[in-house]
Amino acid sequence: MWTTTLMPCEGVTAGGRGGEMEIDEGEGRELNAIAGVLEALALRLSPAFDAAGIGELRLAAHRFRWSADDAGSLAVADHDFHSRLVERCEDEQVLATLGPVRDALYRWQTHLELDPADVAKAAREHDAIVDALSGRDHLTASQLVREHVAGGLPVLLGALDAAPGAQGAGAP
Question: What domains are defined for the chain?
Answer without folding.
Answer: 25-162 (1.20.120.530)
